[in-house]
Amino acid sequence: EENNIVGGFGSAVSEVMADNGLNSKLIRLGIDDTFCGIVGDQAYLRDIYGMSGKKIAKKIIEAMK
Q1: Which three-class secondary structure state does DSSP give residue 44?
Q2: What predicted TM-score, i.e. pTM, was given to this entire model?
């Protein structure tokens, strides 16, 4: 499921990591907290908002550098 960056699942994971002193890299992926004025099918919207498989992979590869 596509989540918001703000208050989404990544926020909960980062809290657990901080509470347990885990020093690992966390890449929060999701949709920015913004109004969506774009209309289209699910594949199109995922691509627009950076949630397509290719764009997620690109974000992960960039973060690993």
Answers
A1: helix
A2: 0.73
